[in-house]
Amino acid sequence: MPNYDFECQDCHKAFEVRATIKEMEEGKISCVKCKSKNIKRIFNGFGVCTGKTSSSMSSSSSSCSPCSSGSCSTCG
After folding, report:
1. Of residues 59, 10, 61, 55, the one with CA closest to residue 31
2. Minimal CA–CA distance to 17: which of 38, 45, 28, 34?
3. CA quadruple 55, 60, 65, 67: dihedral positive or negative?
4. What are the tens digits of pLDDT across the range 20-41?
5. Is residue 62 part of a domain?
6. What is the dihedral of CA 12, 17, 23, 25, to 10 degrees?
7. Which domain holds residue 31?
8. Potential cystine with 42: which of 5, 36, 56, 69 (Cβ 3.0-4.6 Å)?
9. Does 61 map to a domain?
10. In angstroms, what is the C-alpha Rg of the chain?
11. What are φ and ψ of residue 13, in 5° steps?
C-alpha cells in the first residue's frame, strides 16, 4: 500500500497517509488534525539509483548521496 502526502486546505497541516488506490478514489482521506475532507495532494519528487555508470560520472570520484555508489543517474 503506497504512502501519499497531503496538505489540509482548512488548517494547513501537512500529513502522510498510507492508503489503497480505492480509498483515494472514493475520497475516504481526511485531515489527521481537523478531520476536514478539504485536502490537497502534494507530489514529491524522488530519485532512482540504477547502479550503472554514466559517462558523466565515469571520471568523478564523488559519491552519490541517495545511494552512495557514485555511479547512479542522480549523481552529478
Report:
1. 10
2. 28
3. positive
4. 989 988 988 999 999 999 999 9
5. no
6. 50
7. 3-42
8. 5
9. no
10. 19
11. -80, 130
Give me the residue label for grid cell 495532494.
41
| Cell numbers for 70 | 557514485
Is the dihedral angle over the CA atoms 53, 54, 58, 63 positive or is it negative? Answer: negative
Could you give the percent of the chain with pLDDT greater than 70?
58
Q: Kindly provide the residue ranges of all beta strands, DSSP E only, lying in the chain, ordered along the sequence.
A: 3-8, 14-18, 39-42
The residues facing 16 across adjacent strands are 5
Pull the grid cell for residue 52: 550503472
Q: Tell whether 13 is covered by a domain.
A: yes
Closest CA to 44 of 76, 1, 17, 5: 5
Q: Would the pTM of this model clear 0.70, i.e. be above it?
A: no
Note whether 38 and 44 are within 8 A (CB). no
